[in-house]
Amino acid sequence: MSITRNDVEHVANLARLELSEQEKEQFEGQLNAILKYAEKLNQLDTDGIEPTSHVLPLANVMRDDKVKPSLPIEKVLLNAPEDEDGHFKVPAVLE
Amino acid sequence: MSVFDLRLSEIHNRLQNKQLSVAELVEHSIKQISDSDDKIGAFLTLNEAGARKEALALDAQLAAGGNRGLLFGIPAGIKDNIVTEGLRTTCGSKFLENYDPIYDATVVSKLRDAQSITIGKLNMDEFAMGGSNENSAYRAVRNPWDLERVPGGSSGGSAAAVAAGQVYFTLGSDTGGSIRQPAAYCGVVGLKPTYGLVSRFGLVAFASSLDQIGPITKNVEDSAYVLQAIAGHDDRDTTSANVEIPDYLSALTGDVKGLRIGVPKEYLGEGIDPQVKERVLEALKVFESLGAVWEEVSLPHTEYAIATYYLLASSEASSNLARFDGVRYGVRADNPSNLLDLYRRSRSEGFGAEVKRRIMLGTYALSSGYYDAYYKKAQQVRTLIKQDFDQVFEKYDLIIGPTAPTTAFKLGEQVGDPLTMYLNDICTIPVSLAGVPAISVPCGTAEGLPVGLQIIGKPFDEQTVLRAAHAFESQTGFHNLRPALS
């Protein structure tokens, strides 16, 4: 499998990245090289091998459903690039 | 002898006996940073005023004769992907250049409880992605042993700061080798604990199933001290292991008689610099002289580890970094035409090339039609790699090999070739995929540059790892070598 310029543009769109023409060209070459290298995994027969997503046996962590004070709004908004009336501000979603 | 040459236990005693004050320790650090950091570039943010204020408070407490924590008065540096309340945390990225966290990471709270003082935040590859520290959005860190060479990455600032005697210990984070590899390149001690032993709450996530915080120190005893302070269960981290924390310091007996060591042939084969191999073989002779026994073993899936790692780590990174959208914190593009435009341009302006490359790779590997071929396949190979370790640990107490295949390379030498750069992590990545603990300790030099010995243990058996590492350094003294700069 090899990555085309269209694939790079499609993946950039999925990843919410805007790439320059130079970046598209660079990533096309580099991703192809990395994925070609990654194809060596196909040398291994992994039929019947369980995937390891995590080395620890994970369990849900439950806490008591108790009401606690939330973070103060001014702290929550402290790092917001733009805010208004105690809310994060974004461009209009609905026209 | 410089105060930086003292072990933490010696500093503790001197403070206790009033031969040294906390204020003096802090001033030593600030002066050393001010004298050397224009050359090294290890620090991104300094907490001078805060550190001085804390030092005065601790000295007052010392005079009043109160209880003292494990790291009482010891100035530390923290990698800049570990959040510190009110102290800027950038992750080495322009995206977060103005980010002031509103809470402390659990490890930072634990250091505070142990009464350590945070001197500042340490330079790193952007979002911990890189093996040379050249991917920092601010400046590359330089290796104190040779300023034309890299310190390793991504905790390059954390390792260089200790090597340059700027601070008494640091915290780094290790995903594929980012504590151990820079520790090896800079001639200091770096410990990656077992996955889950140290809380990741407040560590800005890169690859959540691999990331682990650990100490970088001048010697193994200091490493045990810091681990003692930061290990332990945290219910705010769903991946935190609920295990009993032993006394790591009592493990440092110097006795390794009868210890069974496996030496993977794959770690001393093709691609390993002959001088690095020679230092490792010499180290094994030291263990032999101390009564340990070693045999060659095989970790047959080692050659598949790098491909596995980069698929899995990039996939997790593409998911974790989705939160950087320009809305709640970080960079925000000017005059966005709509929400999608805000996301795309903010992320493109905020992230550097390596981060974009990994997001692209991860998004591709997780995308419809490729998930089974790349992501699931890599997770299955991860199982095989983990089984390799399980099998060797049925017969052996430890696995030993080099930390990195070469010594530190020159700045710019590999920057245009990501695949070659990734191959520097061949000895550290399999360990991360298996989630087991490993330490890098200095084992001599090759052409004047430090070589790291990697000692790998069974899950949650940090005691044996530290015991062997301590016995080795006590016998050899390589940890006492310092770069000319300091």
TrEMBL record, chain A:
Belongs to which family?
A: Belongs to the GatC family.
The answer to whether UniProt assigns keyword Transferase to this entry is: yes
* GO terms classed as biological process: glutaminyl-tRNAGln biosynthesis via transamidation; regulation of translational fidelity; translation
Task: Report the superkingdom from the record.
Answer: Bacteria
Q: Which gene encodes it?
A: gatC
Q: EC number(s) for this protein?
A: 6.3.5.-
Q: What is this protein called?
A: Aspartyl/glutamyl-tRNA(Asn/Gln) amidotransferase subunit C
Keyword annotations for this protein? ATP-binding, Ligase, Nucleotide-binding, Protein biosynthesis, Transferase
From TrEMBL, chain B:
The record's listing under InterPro entries reads: Amidase, Amidase_CS, Amidase_dom, AS_sf, GatA
Provide the GO MF annotations for this entry. ATP binding; glutaminyl-tRNA synthase (glutamine-hydrolyzing) activity; transferase activity
The enzyme's E.C. designation: 6.3.5.7
**What keywords were assigned to this record?**
ATP-binding, Ligase, Nucleotide-binding, Protein biosynthesis, Transferase
A GO CC annotation given for this chain: glutamyl-tRNA(Gln) amidotransferase complex
One GO biological process term is:
translation
PANTHER family hit by this protein: GLUTAMYL-TRNA(GLN) AMIDOTRANSFERASE SUBUNIT A, TRANSAMIDASE
Q: How does it assemble?
A: Heterotrimer of A, B and C subunits.
According to its UniProt entry, the function of this protein is described as: Allows the formation of correctly charged Gln-tRNA(Gln) through the transamidation of misacylated Glu-tRNA(Gln) in organisms which lack glutaminyl-tRNA synthetase. The reaction takes place in the presence of glutamine and ATP through an activated gamma-phospho-Glu-tRNA(Gln).
**Name of the protein this chain belongs to:** Glutamyl-tRNA(Gln) amidotransferase subunit A
Please report the organism this UniProt entry assigns to the protein. Answer: Cohnella abietis
